[in-house]
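Both lines are given unchanged directly below:

***
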Amino acid sequence: MNQRSLTCPCLSGKPYANCCEPLHQANHGANTAESLMRSRYSAFCLGHANYLLTTLHPSKRRPDELKQIEATINSTTWLGLKILDHKQANDLAEVEFVAFYKDAPFGQLHERSRFTREAGQWFYHDGVFMPDIKLGRNEPCFCGSGTKFKHCHGN
C-alpha cells in the first residue's frame, strides 16, 4: 500500500492524497490556519522539512532553521494530533492543539499557535506552550486507532 492511499497523519480521516499531500506538493495553499496546522503536523511526521520552512513566517526564520527542523524530524516520533480550538479574524488566526509523541510512553506538545495570512498565504508565526491536557480513559485514543485510550496508549 502506498503512502498516498493511507489515512493522513493529521488524523482528519481523509486519505493523505486528498488532505495534506496537495499542500506538501504546493498544488495549492491552505485555506485556513487549521488546515495549515494539520499540514505542518503531517510534514513533521513525514519528514517534509522544506515545507515546514516555507510555511514558517519569513520573519521567524533563523539562519540554521532548516537544520533545526531536520533535527526535530529525526529525533521525534509523532503519535497523534488533537485540535482543541481554532479562531480566525481576517488575516490573523490561532489554533490550539496537542501533538502527542513517543516518550516513555508518550509526551504532549500543547500549544496555542498564531498564524498570519499575507498575500493569500497562511504562515505559522509563533506559539505559546500550554500545560498538558488530561486524557479521559474512555475517550478515543489520540493516535487514531479507534480504540479507547485506556486500551491503547493509556495502558
Summary: The two ends are 29 Å apart (CA to CA). The chain has a mean pLDDT of 94.
